Amino acid sequence: MNDEVILEIKGLTKQFGGVTAVNNVDLTLHRHDILGVIGPNGSGKTTLVNLITGFVKPTKGKIIYLGHNITGKTPHVIADRGIARTFQVMRPYATLAAYKNLIVPLSSPRVKRMVGGSLGDRDAVAIDILEEVGFERDAYVPYKLASSLPLGYLKRLELARCLALRPDLIICDEVFSGLSMAEIATMVPVMERLHDAGLTIIMIEHRLRELFRLANRVIVLNFGSKIADGVPAEVMEMEEVKAAYMGTEAVPC
Amino acid sequence: MDILIYGLVNSFIYVLMAAGFTLVYGVSRLPNFAHGALYVLTGFLVWTFVNSAGLNYFVSILITVVIVALLGAFLYRFVLMRVRGMPVSEIIVSFAVALIILEGLRLQGIGGFKGFIGSSYTLPTFIDRTVSIAGVVIDAQRLLIVGIGLAIVIFMWIFTRRQKIGLAFRGMAQDEHAAMMLGIDSDLMAVLALAVGSSLAAIAAVAIYPLGQVTAETGYHVLNAALAVCIVGGLGSWMGAILASFIFGYATTFASFMGAAKYQDVILFGLIVLVLIIRPSGLFGRQKELEERV
Amino acid sequence: MTGATEATAGASPAPEGRRKERLDRGLKVRTEGLYAVNSYREITYLVGPRLLLILGLAVLPLLLPNLYWQRVLCVAGAYALLAISFDFLANYVGLVCVGGAFMTGVGGFTAGIFTYYLHVPWPISILLGTVLGAALVTLIWLPSLPLRGIYFAILTFMFPFLARGVILALGILGGTEGLGPVAGMDNIWIENYLVIVVLLVAVFGLRRLVGEDAGIVLRGVKDNDMAVQASGISVTRTKAKGLFIGSLAGCFAGAYIVHLYNFMGTSLFATDYSILPIAAAVMGGSGTLAGPMLGALILTPLSELLRGFGQLRVVLYALVLVGFILFKPEGLLNWLTRKYHQFEKWTKV
Question: Which of A156, B279, B292, C161 has CB 3.0 to 4.6 Å from A133, enough for a Cys bridge?
Fold first, then answer.
């Protein structure tokens, strides 16, 4: 395992009016980690993602990515540094074919910089990436209009959009939610492959069974505060986690 | 002292001009570009009732305010409702309606209609005398403008906090979908908002027109003033609109006392550009940061 | 069984036992921009409408009866450019510009200054007016670009009036009277064909652009600006690029008009330049780029015929606008395209 720190968060706090959505969260993420973020609804998970990716400005605290302070930077600057994210509410570029959706990240300055000049035919690259996340090229799925794709493919399209940016860190905001068991079963190997390819991944997830298979570390948020941090098996044994996340009843998984 | 009092008057002129537009946008997120046209229409209707139909001045004002309010409601029901939710079409359609009214009033030579062109159209003042306040001579009409402006601001403040409809308005303004789930009819609210907003434009017209002439050009001027106030104050914000009105009012008054009355537009232009550069969403405007729920 | 089909057939009431069926004619297009052409018939089918447009415009000046109508064609061409600019900005960049007059004004005055004060030959003036004017327009509207929603529309509405007010108040650039004579092109054939060539370049160029990668980024901004930001692309910069491209067409129209009328004044900021292009764009078909051009070529001669009736033409544009938005929002060209690609027939059920 590589011990390089990729992301460091210190005392991150966000208040919306009187509500504290994220409260004094500290976090250190090493390269090649898969970090699971869990917590009940409204515990501040998505706000945490928005804070890291710059869509929301923090009230207090510091975010350091690869040694650079990225606190309060605009979203496109942070994405340019190599943090890609999916959105919980998917809005693809509806008037475009699925593979054309990837043209946007493929035209970004970051990709231009990384490939050092021309990428060649962007369409071909886009279709390759889509195939990687499970768009069947032979069934012409990549050519379909994005607005006509079912939910499972939209989630993959989100993931593909992130991959096209060639990021170091991917933040997946509930990519498994709303998918059927079969669809999830095909998504898990995709995530494993990404991890093997050297990506660092933060996953926000309600599907604990799959998350615990993938993640090597889990943090638990409750009312915006971090209440647990550690290896999945240990975390789930902690009393306060059981109480906060599942109620005091038995653990379902 | 002169600047203080005349600045106050000018500020309230801006408040009156912008009140209707702010209300409609605040409640139903509809940019009513026909605002200025309704303002001008009021002037012409009152003039016609008084001079052609020979009605009493106050009766004609009353009738006109009702007509314009109904017109606003119709504008929503038959035009804007069909394009609701498509901002491009909302703007274009209301702008087109404005043009039909404004340029229609200037039509000539069809069916013996002479068109409202020239300087012969003026509305009489309510009370034709001057008052002296703290050594400043001011005519009663200008005082009336301050009075009406204050009354509208106070009325809106009480209305939105006490009355059931007012609370529904506020609910709509804050979160349309949540309000709809609580059983507030979005279309009904929009109809009411346009009716109230249009009558505010009408009231502004009868208050302000006696100071000058009734011409179609004033429609563009009023719409521009309302838009400028809303941009600087922050779209849909009452506090912002009032603050921006005072900024504009005092800035233009100051300019005219410095002998630079003709630079009004330049000042307006400068202020807008300045505010946009410093605070693009306006003084009180809140730019929606994120559409996802937290 | 029959009842079920009719129920699914939808809202339009069909006569007993019959329903309308829509069939695709000609080529099946697999994805946008990818054709499989394998016969002259298919080539004709694809190229036909484009060729018709090019040839039609090329021949048009020769068919016009007199100088007056040739001048009308010049004006119509300028309006068509403004309409294309509006359509491009509204439907491919997501910026609703209700102040096309600001573009004509800035482009016109910029070009006019070069010709009038500096005695630059007109082709260079027009070029400078187009490029510098577009840069100026983009720069002035830049602060509002990060904002969503209707801010941009409101701002663009105000600017022609404000700009006019500033010129009148300061008495610069000719003030109320305007400046003239500006040395112009002085040859009706040059005037005609210049605007036609620019029109064709604008239509085909922009249609090409929106299918290219750079154009797709612009369309992405319109569909979902957050995803664009998350892809490491600055939304403001992209919008600014789009605005600059759109303004090029608008500013050229202004520069061209100055050299057509040999005059520049605050009339360059007139409401006509804002409203007719919008009416033409909506009438011709939003998002088609060629449709707005056709719309302008239809509306301008119509309004010329009404010139004797004062403001009636503005009322006409406004009525056309309201009518089309409410009752035929797809516009003429979208309707025609549908008719060209599909045909309908009645089938027994």
Answer: A156
Is A96 in the C-facing interface, judged by CB distances under 8 Å? yes
Res C10: pLDDT: 41
CB-CB under 8 Å, A92 with C232: no
| C328: CB partners within 8 A, 6+ apart | C335
Same domain, A99 and A72: no
Q: How distant is the Cα of B283 from the closest Cα of chain C, in angstroms? A: 14
B256: CB partners within 8 A, 6+ apart: B264
Other C-beta atoms lying within 10 Å of the C-beta of residue B189:
21
Contact B294 A16 (CB under 8 A): yes
What is the average pLDDT across C135-158?
A: 84
Interface contact C213-A103, CB threshold 8 A: yes
Q: Which residue in chain B is spatially nearest to A46 when comparing CA positions? A: B294
Does residue B14 contact residue B245 with C-beta atoms inside 8 Å? Answer: yes
CATH assignment at residue A252: 3.40.50.300
Is A176 part of a structural domain of the chain? yes
Q: Which fold has domain C76-337?
A: ABC transporter involved in vitamin B12 uptake, BtuC (1.10.3470)
B 262-291 residues with CB < 8 A to A: 289-291
DSSP state of C234: -
Same domain, A155 and A173: no
Residues of chain A whose pLDDT is less than 50? Answer: 1, 250-253
> Is B119 within 8 Å of chain A by CB?
no
Confirm whether B167 is domain-assigned: yes
Cα–chain center distance at A138: 28
